[in-house]
Each structure stands twice: as structure tokens, then as C-alpha cells.
């Protein structure tokens, strides 16, 4: 169980309920997952986090599937079980196939390996990599 | 400077030179960046790491641009300066625009934030997120 | 279950029991939590860790509530379930309200986000931030 | 140098300039630090991040000094040089003494140590720590 | 349960079965642990990861016990429960005593503490530490 | 430069000087490296950290070379430049050859990769790995 009490829809004050409604409308779902129910413990954090996630994950120069896979990649690297499970589900819903998931995890693993080799040997940054475009 | 001596092409033993040649051929470039020159300190690590990276980063179910952006996302999350700079350059070469980089970093930042909110409150995983497909 | 056998009070050798007694006296409690029971697997680590924690967490220039909240912030950031749960409890005991916990987690989340934005873009440190006082 | 071009005030489009102005007004300073100049590469990220930081760091149930110290603690734990230097400066400006900084770093170090001891031995969470209040 | 379906030996295609057979032969065991059964979801990752682990963990300039302890140290530091439990078991099988485990965890804890003290204060690298041999 | 003023031997108060003397005597060196000079900003942290490091790194069930390599492995994984450089030097002084360093980094890289594969797929811990000895 979480360290704070989640706030079910039925008990939510109007400001929290408004966020819940926007989540369901935006995502075209009829339930609220535990992440938001738990954040509602601190309504300002619920509202700010939802609005940020909504803006950041909207289609743009990157499509939603790529964004979900990047989210999953970071969550796998940081070991957040909740985020790994919820974003694996979200990425699949957005079209991620099993082959794509396999390649995604392979890249995540490889990046974590070479990050430590580069840092562990204190590899010097090449001059050519130092310019902004 | 790195903690070990990089091995320039001219001084490389044949096994190392063969890896260097394969890197340049595969990537269609005429130079070797410091990461590989430094790994050559331990030739078995150079060869294994290059062959793994070559396999993992090849086009497949995910295209090379997505793979480069995922690599950059993980490296930014882990704070590997070498990897951030080299994969920002590689992603741009593979077609990443400035708008895509902006959205990528926004997702990385958001994932790092929500990873800690989920862990910090010990949010319980929803039953619906627990099934494999 | 842990990877080593915890040492219950009844079975503890005198050196371990002395640490357990000091923990209970210092904290004014009548039980020993699993962290210390497990560390007792290696008595030198138990003793050194307890003495360090006792010294570091004592009231000083920072009051105990602030120290507990900082401990919780780091533990949430690192994702140590045991530490998150035990220090959430300890911080509440020291006076942390639910509103304070909400703001604390908000700061932890925000710091984790901006840490990656600063590193991900390799933001240059301003000259004004480089001086020691 | 950063991986993207910072946007100086003189070259900033109106939407970016509005954020810069709000930063200077809110913080009562007459310059913009590199973090914001660099984020301006992606104006939506600049605006959203500033508004979030402004809201999260405002006085509330926790005072600004505590918030700055928590920010610094997380940044030290994650090793973000930019954030360590800028928030050490900010915390001092908010009243952090050298003794407070010393105790803060001691708590950060100790939390990082015990987080790994708890995880490394897979210490079991005590039943008493599992309840929300 | 994992986010993908593990592949039991009976259902494994020949390429996967060949890796399973090599794991059992190399390790002189008659079962396959869940890590490999799960990686088999993406056969290329299974094969590449096994071949890399087999090469890296073979006796060389470092003996297998030291390698297992280093693996455990990194896993404890990163908080990978699966890896902590499997490599604690593997290290014990390779000869790690309880006293050795106690000292190993003490070093892991201490390194995590001093890493943050060095980064948190931005300690300057001594000139004498900057030379490669 | 560090965020606090290092304390040179000549300016050190007696309590700090006593620690410096013990460091030089214990390590049989005639200089103090920046880590300790910087920690001296907070004498209690200097003294506690030194005494802990001295105890933890002393010969025991593990020899000093193994301990130095584990310290380096954790520091490489966490990306602490100061610690990587100082413990690479210390490990070499304790007898680490270049071949040993190469194998050590290979294990560190591999552990970081498989930690993320195990977490990223949420691999289930095998029953056989759950028992303490």
C-alpha cells in the first residue's frame, strides 16, 4: 500500500474531480489509475503533474508511440516498477509490438552498459562532439 | 584525460585494427572516436562492445533515429557526458530536428519526475497493469 | 525475506545486544526494526552504521525534522522502499504534516526533472555560481 | 558548451522574453542564469518548467530554505553539477550557514549509504512501517 | 509477473533451446533461471546477452568469485532485486563466506556515501590522480 | 573549484590536523588529497568519514585490492569522477594490473546492462534465489 491515502473519485473535492474528469476525457478511458489517485493526496501536485504530462505527451514533432517508448526506457533505467508496468501497457496500446519492445530494451541495456564504460574510463569528449549545431 | 591510454590506429595490433576498420566501414566515416580508442585498452571489451552496439543499433522493428533518441534519453538520465554529446550528434545525423530534441528532453525530464513521485509515495500497481499480453 | 539471516535480540551476542540497547534507549522505543536486525549479520557494520546515523541525525544546525525529510527525499530519489517507508514514518513522528510531505515530494520530483534537463543539454555553469563563499 | 544554443535576452522572441521577465521579477534579480537561457531552445519547456519551479519552490508548509536544501540534497545525490552549484548558491542566499551545509551533506551521504545496505541485503519492510496514517 | 511471457524450454524454438543448452552445460546446472527464460522473448537479446555474460564472467585476470562480488556490488548499488538475489546466490556458490559478504556490503555502502560527498561538494580532482599509468 | 573552502594543513585546527596526521600515517603518504581537505569544512564529517573508511577498507575477509576494485566499480557505476580517478590510482597502487582493470570495467558494464534488462522486463525472482543460507 502507498504511504498516503489515495483519493477515490467519490470522495474527491471538486478541484481533484475536475482533474480526474480531464484525465478520462483526454485519454478516452472510464477509470483513473492509482498514480493519479495517490497524487491527489496533494491536489496542487496532482493538477500540475497532470497538466505537464498532458502537454509533454501530446503529439508533436515526436509521435505518441515514440514518447511512450522513451518514457518506458527512462523508467526501466531508473527502476520504477509502477512506471515500467504502466508505460509498457501504454506503449502497447499506442502500437508497440513485441519486437519493438525487445529492441527497445536492448538499446536501454546497451546504453546503460556503455554509459558506465565511458564514465568508468573517463573517456575524453572528442572535439567534434562539442559543437552545438 | 582518460584513466587508461587510448590506442591510436597507427599503434593498434591487428585485432584492434580490424574492429576500427569495421567501425569506419559500417558507419561510413574516416575516423574513430575516443570511446573506441579508449576501450581498445582491453581488446576483448572493444570487440564485444562494438559487435553488440552494431547489432543493437541496426535498423529493425525500430528505426535508427528512434534508437539514437532512446540512447540519448538514457544517457541524459544517467548523466554520461560523453554519451550525451556523442548521441546528440548521432541523433542529429540520423535526422533529429531541434524540435524533436526539445520534446525528447521534455519527456526525459517528466519521466524522471514521475518516477520519483511513484516511488516516493510507493504507489500501488493497478491490477490492470500486471498482465503480460 | 532478506539475503542474510536477521539476528533477533534473544540470539544476539553481547556486542550486538549493546547496539540494540543503545538504539532503543536513544530512540525511546521498545523494539528494533528489521534494518538493524539484518545489519547485525555483520556486527562491525551494525555498530559503525548505528553510531554514524546517531551522530548525523542528532539535533544540530538542522533540526531532526528537516534531517528526516532530507533522508526521505534522497531515499525517494534512489528508490529504496525500506528507507522510504521507515523515514516517512520517522518524519511523521518528528512532526511532518501531510501538507509538508506533499510539498517535499513535489520538490523531489522537480529536482529530478531539472537535474536531467541541465545534464541532458549540458548547461554550462554560470561564472557567478562557481565561487565558494 | 551546451548541446543547443542558449537564447540571450536580446534575441528572445516575446514569449521567451515574458518568461525571462517573470523570472527576474519573481526572484528580484537583474540577470538570467544559463539554465533558463538554454531551456529557451524549446520555449514550451522553458515556460512549463519555470511555472512549475515557481509554484513548487514558493513558501508554503515548508519554508524556502528547507526547499532549497532538499533540492540540493537530491542534486548532490544525482550528481548534477549545474544544479549542485546553483542550488548551493540559492540555499546560501536563503540563509543556509556553513554548519547547515555540512550537516546536510552528512545526511545525504548517510542516506545514500543506508539505502544500499537496505537494498543490498533486501531488508524486509517491518509491518509497522506499512500503514498510511 | 514479468511484462512479457517467459519461454519455457519445452516451447522454445531451436535457436533459443541452443542457448538454454549452452547455459546449462557451461554452468553445470539442470535448470534455466527466469532471467534467461524472460529474455527469450527477444531471441537476439537472449543470445547476445548470454554470450557476453559468458565471456565477461569467465576466469581471467580476475577470478570468478571476485567477478561475482563486483556484479553483486553494482546490483546492490543500482537496486536490482533480481540481480541482487541471483548474484548473492552465485557468489556464495563461488565461495563467498558470510564475512566476505558483510565486508562487501560495507564497501558498497561506504562508496555510495563518499561518492555523494565528493560530488556534493564538487571536490576538485588532485593533479596526481589525473595521469594514466 | 569546490563549493566550500578546503582547509590546508597549515590552517587546520588541532582536531582536523589529528585526522590529517592519522591519514598520512595509516596510508604511509606525506600529503593529503583534496577529498579530505574539502571534508574538513565540516570537521565532524571529516572525522567520522575517515574513521569509517579506515575501518571498512582495512584488510579482513577481503583483501585491500578487492576492496579497492569494488570501490572503483561502484564509483564508475555512479559516475563520481573524483572517486573514479582516486580509486583507479589506489587500486593500481594495491596491485591492479591493466588486464584486471579491463575485466573489472567489463563486469561493471555488463552488470549495468543486465540490471536494466531484469528490471525493464520485471523478471520474477526464482524461488531458489529467495532463501538465505
Describe it for me?
Six copies of one chain form a homohexamer. The first copy, chain A, has 133 residues and is mainly α. Chain A is 65% helix and 0% strand. In chain A, helix 1 runs parallel beside helix 3, helix 4 packs antiparallel against helix 5 and helix 4 crosses helix 6. The N and C termini of chain A lie far apart (48 Å). Chains A and B meet through helix 2, helix 3, helix 4, helix 5 and helix 6 of A and helix 2, helix 3, helix 4, helix 5 and helix 6 of B.
Short summary of the structure?
Chain A has 133 residues and is mainly α.
Summary keywords:
6 helices; 133 residues; 65% helix; 0% strand; homohexamer; mainly alpha
Helix and strand arrangement:
Six copies of one chain form a homohexamer.
Chain A (H helix, E strand, L loop, with lengths): L13 H14 L6 H6 L3 H15 L6 H15 L2 H13 L4 H23 L13
Helix/strand/pairing category of chain A: mainly alpha
Biggest β-sheet of chain A, characterized?
none
* H/E series of chain A: HHHHHH
How would the global form of chain A be characterised?
elongated
Say what oligomer this is. Answer: homohexamer
Report the end-to-end length of chain A measured between terminal Cα atoms. 48 Å
Strand content of chain A: under 5%
Measured by residues with Cβ under 8 Å of the partner chain's Cβ, the largest interface is: A-B, 69 and 69 residues
Mean of residue pLDDT of chain A?
97
Give the tally of β-strands of chain A. Answer: 0
Percent of residues in helices of chain A: 55-70%
- From the alpha carbons, calculate the radius of gyration of chain A and give it in angstroms: 19 Å
Count of discrete alpha- or pi-helical segments spanning 4 or more residues of chain A: 6
Poorly predicted tracts of residues of chain A: none
Amino acid at each position: 500500500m502507498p504511504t498516503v491515502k489515495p483519493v477515490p473519485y467519490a470522495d474527491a473535492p471538486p478541484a481533484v474531480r475536475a482533474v480526474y474528469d480531464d484525465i478520462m476525457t483526454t485519454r478516452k478511458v472510464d477509470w483513473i489509475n492509482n498514480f493519479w489517485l495517490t497524487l491527489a493526496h496533494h491536489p496542487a501536485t496532482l493538477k500540475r503533474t497532470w497538466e505537464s504530462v498532458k502537454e509533454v505527451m501530446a503529439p508533436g514533432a515526436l509521435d505518441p508511440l515514440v514518447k511512450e517508448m522513451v518514457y518506458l526506457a527512462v523508467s526501466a533505467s531508473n527502476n520504477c516498477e509502477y512506471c515500467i508496468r504502466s508505460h509498457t501497457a501504454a506503449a502497447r496500446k499506442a502500437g508497440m509490438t513485441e519486437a519493438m519492445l525487445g529492441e527497445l530494451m536492448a538499446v536501454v541495456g546497451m546504453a546503460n552498459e556503455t554509459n558506465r564504460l565511458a564514465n568508468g574510463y573517463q573517456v575524453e569528449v572528442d572535439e567534434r562532439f562539442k559543437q552545438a549545431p
